Every structure is written in structure tokens, then in C-alpha cells.
Amino acid sequence: MGTKIEEHAGKERGWLKQSSNVSLEDINNTVSVPSKGGFWRKLLAFMGPGSLVAVGYVDPGNWATSIAGGARFGYTLLIVILLSNLIAMLLQALSSKLGIVTGRDLAQATKDATGKNTAFFLWILAELAIIATDLAEVIGSAIALNLLFGIPILLGIAITTLDVLLLLYLQKKSFRIIESIVIVLMVTIFVVFAFEVMIAKPEIAALFGGFIPQPEIVTNPQMLFISLGILGATVMPHNLYLHSSIVQTRQYTRATEGKREAIKFSIIDSTFSLTIAFLINSAILILGAAAFYGTNLDVSEIEAAYELLSPTLGVGLASTLFAVALLASGQNATITGTISGQIVMEGFINLRISPWLRRLITRLLAVIPAFIVTWLAGSKGTGELLLWSQVVLSLALPFAVIPLVIFTSDKKKMGEFANKLPVKILAWVCTGVIVALNIFLIGYIVVTGQDLG
Fold this sequence. Notes:
- The protein has 453 residues and is mostly helical.
- The protein has one domain (2-448): Amino acid/polyamine transporter I.
- The chain contains 21 helices and two strands.
- Helix 6 packs parallel to helix 17, helix 7 (116-149) packs across helix 8 and helix 8 packs across helix 18.
- The protein is globular.
- H(+)-stimulated, divalent metal cation uptake system.
């Protein structure tokens, strides 16, 4: 009996050592889940990872598309945002389930199922996606600094490298601190847009009508292109790697019942956070519709929305709050991009490097092209750079989604937690839609060289 207990304890310590893969420097950064206590106490312990995941759905890369969609087509495309978030909720639930049941994140599980060469190729794709995401945050933050303080975009891009020091300090302190900061920034963005929508006074009947599918979404080419931009960029590949790893920061019983409980609470956490992201994304489009629809104003970029928002709404604070939310969005996504980078590097190629070096390399790979393009082509060039960053994300997405659905449907890996037939069918349908739309998106951009707007 004593030997078995020691073996079990050894396995548990081994899992904890493995779970340090979640971009934390020591196991003290995990969060204990009470073995006893009510529903709310346990839920509070599990809350946090979902907020880090939700950040990817409200990053600066999506703002211009949503605003343009509202300005051009009113509330019609709200249904696209709703469907996008429902798909995201399903895939993030599968991602967290994979991490909880197998004790392996998506990058590790993919490496286990492939050879070293394939794993290396997939790591390169994942890294490119993270750099592309970081690029959007660099440009978004630089634009926000320019709008708020008049700082030139080139200088703003340089300033964004300073977040390395702050993030490393927080990461060394506690993972809970990072989660708390992300939640505060998400709440800030939510409150800002709730206020903006309130003063914009949208038409309530038309607003709710936007959640009803309309045939013109697929028959109107311009509307379809913007819909593809919203849907195609919704599920970020790095979010799937991230969620399957950070969910393991919770210490819970590894028995079947413990895993089942962990899955339940992690799904509640991610679904709640993604619901907030859905409300924010909807609010951005609603704001674009309420403020600019029918005005014949050209609102295709974030700067234009900022400049026109206060004059259109008649509230001087509107533009300033918009820029504050943009800055919060950029800083939020920066945090999750850094953690994701560590996860995929350790998961795919089993390489650990110092967090400061990892962060510096990723940020410089995003800052350098943004700096060069801005220097040569100005703000128009940064807009085009954002476009191509979305293409990179689209290319990488199927290589994360397809393995996720395969692994979570595999009874050998998941046991009784493997996807049931209805979930399996739904997951493959969603995967097919995402892959098809991303291929269409990439094909359109490559052939025409034009933005979806």
C-alpha cells in the first residue's frame, strides 16, 4: 500500500513538473482548487484562464473591420459576430478539455502524434501566427498612443517594447496577478463601449433584427467579404494552444470525478469570458452602425473612427474613451501572446529559454517590420501590414483546429471524455466552415490584393 501511495505521489509531482509548461517559472504559480466548498467557491478558483483566452477576440486587429461593417451595413452583420463566438466557445471548450483530461497541451499532444520534422514545421507556423498577432498589438497600441498623446506612430512602436520589463516582473510574481490585470483591462474595454453605445442611442428594433440571418449577407459581395473578415479572424490559433495549457494551472484531483468537475468549471469560465468578448465585439459594430451608418462618412480605419466619433455623437469624451479602450486592448493581447509563445516553443520543440529573451525576440520580430513599413509608407502601410498579419493567422488556423478535434474525439487519448457523436459532428462542421472561409479569405486577398472592406 505504501509503495502505491508513493508511486501515485510521484506521478502527481511529475504532472506538476510538466504543468510548469504553462509559461510559469515555478509550480508556486499554480492555483489550488478547494476539495470542499460550494459551487461559487470552486468556480472562483477556476476563473481566470477564460479571460486570457477572450482577449484574443477583442484585439485591435478586429476593430476596423467591425466598425466598417457597422458603418456600411448597419446592424446586419451582428449575426456573424454571434455565430463566430458560438464556434469559438465550442473550440475553446474542447481545448480546455484536452488539457484537463490528458495533462498535455495542444502543442505537446500534436508533437506526441507526429514526428520531429512535422512538429518543427507546425511550431514555425504557430510562431508566425503569434508574431502576426503581436504585430497587430504593436500597431494598435502605437495608434492608441498617437491618438491619446500625439506620440508619433514610429515612436509609439518603439515604446511598445518596454512592456517586456513589466510583463516579466508580473510573471515572476504570480500568474493570478496577470489574470487579474487582464480582467481589469477587459472590464475597462467593456465599460467604455457600453457607455459609447448608450450615448450613440442605437435603434433597438433594428439592433435585435441584426441577429436574424439575412440572405444578402451571402449575396452582397461587399457584405460577404466583411463577414469573412469577422468570422475568419475570430478563432486565433494561439488561443487554442494557450487555453489547453493555462487551464492546467489549477490544482485539482486527477481522478475521473475531479477531471469532470474541472471540465465543467473551465467551460463555465471560458463561456462567460467569451460572452463578454461577444458583447464587446457587438458593441463595436453597433457603435459603427449607430454613429456612422447612413452618414456617407468613410470610416474604414481606426483613426477615422476616432476622428469622427466625437463630432458625430456630439460628446467630446467619446473619441478619447475609444482610444483608451484601444490601448487596453493592445496591452491585453500582448500579455497572452507572450505566454502563448512560450507554450508552443516548449510544447513543439521542447525548448526552454529565458522568458525575457523569449519576449524580446517575439516583440522585435513584430516591431521591426512595423517600424520599417511605417517609416517607408506611413499609416497606410501599417494598415496593409495588419491585413497580411491576418493572412498569416488564417494560414496557421487549420493546423491547430484539425488536430484539436481529432485528439478530443480519440477514445484512446480521452477515454470516457472523448467527444460524443453530436459534439463530434458539430466540431467538424465548424472546422469545415472555418477552413473553407479562411481559404476563401486568403484567395481573395492574394488575387485582388484588397482588404475585405
